Amino acid sequence: MKAMKRAAAALTAVAALFVAGCSSSGDEEGPGPTPSGDRSGRPDDGKASGMRGMTLPSWNTEDYRSPQAGTYLRQIAATGARWVTFTPTWYQDRITDSAMRVTEETASDDSLRAIVRQAHDLGLKTMVKPHVDIRKGGDRAEIRPKDPDAWFAAYERFITHYAQLSAEAGVEQFSVGTELAGTSEDGERWGKVIAAVRARYKGPLTYAANYDEYKKIPFWKDLDVIGIDAYWPLADKATTDAAALREAWQPVVKELAAFSERQHRKVLFTEAGYVSQRGSTTAPYSWTVSKRDGDAEQAAAYEALLAVFEGKSWWAGVCWWMWDDWPGSGETAKRLAYTPHGKPAEKVLRKWWGKG
């Protein structure tokens, strides 16, 4: 998501601003690296297709090594998912700061390694998608450092740390960034960051752009797949009409197909999701659309997305945001949160992914 859970209220205020686990038409899956693997380094050599999966974020140091971790992974696999995405997060206090740092909310390296091993033991492939978030108000898309040189130097240290860890752990796909719209038009500096990542990690690379950011990215040519966090509003008011939602997707489908063709890369939905609240299709990026249950609307939105994009040759899949929260960390009640677990939306997933 474009902000951490503790910033849920801020999401509503910034709404106008506005792979991974994923699903596509076939059963083929892109090749992933081994700790000693190698490839030519050309972006087109890394493919990311046929992915079906779920994001399992962390909010505390040991979430990924907690007793609940294995349970969540087994539940995710039981939906028919083949991939799971992990989101270690560093923080900066303000959007103008020149560096990010580890806090008590950052997953420890050992916990990240442990959950990657658990996922592999269950037959799941993995993606690591590191996040940067803001501690004192603001959204990561608004980061505009006062000293860009210092910020990019710090960011390169941050992202290559996880690139190296991912290479050593055998992670199958890696994201070089997530929703950093305030910096992502700087192609020269991002090109340097991507080159540093490629020097350490030999598998497929993406970047998770906001749905209103992806057209402005100048460095897709340096990556293997176009990543988009697909939180397009689909309705003006609450609806459970899957047919109407499918129709609302049509202009986006046309736009993305043309963009994929121009960039010579597939499009991966690095995130997509809907809270189970009435009106979730009007603002999919918000944790706090309403206080009214919206299970049927969430399920209709899942159905519409999969029905519209499944089978598109240029579509690399969808990484759903998100599975259950860790005990004690949820700020949004499960019945209203993004998780599809135990809701009609999980039945939709199982139907499309062959576990229904």
TrEMBL record:
Annotated signal sequence range: 1-25
Question: InterPro entries, from UniProt?
Answer: GH, GH113
The record's keywords, sorted A to Z, are: Signal
| Stretches for region Disordered | 23-62
Q: What is this protein called?
A: Lipoprotein
Whose protein is this, by species?
Streptomyces mashuensis
The major lineage groups are: Bacteria, Bacillati, Actinomycetota, Actinomycetes, Kitasatosporales
